[in-house]
Give the backbone structure.
Amino acid sequence: MTDIAILVVEDNPDHRELTVLALRECCDPARIATASDGTDALDFLFGRGIHDGRDTRKQPRLVILDMKLTRLHGLDVLKAMRAHALTQSVPVVMLSSSTEKPELDSCYEAGANSVVRKSLDYDELRRKMRQVYDFWVTVNEANRNSRV
């Protein structure tokens, strides 16, 4: 299996597909994994369920995490990541459609590295995903625990 650079966690299939399409313009598609909800994301990160046997020592360089997920809220996924040694240093960019400051602040309080507002305009989404990728995967020096 190819080492995963980015895990995209998005429960809306259309938003997930558009985000992945935008990321494919700058990242090898084989290095992008997706999760359809928070539970699936944690199973991937911790090597549980259908991901049993995945080498969890190799974590993604970046997790792009939707804030409002079904089954398990994005903030709960983030808190679980920050509480576990395997994932506590993996950078997390939260995606949110909210403009409410307290809601956005809650992302940082839970341990997000960045919060990006969702965009319904595909060109804007492409630009934002390029910037997220460029910074977190190519510019930022990854913590050794998250290096793939």
In short: The chain is about 40% helix and 15% strand. Helices lie at 13-24, 38-46, 74-82, 101-110, 122-139. Strands lie at 6-9, 32-35, 62-66, 92-96, 114-117.
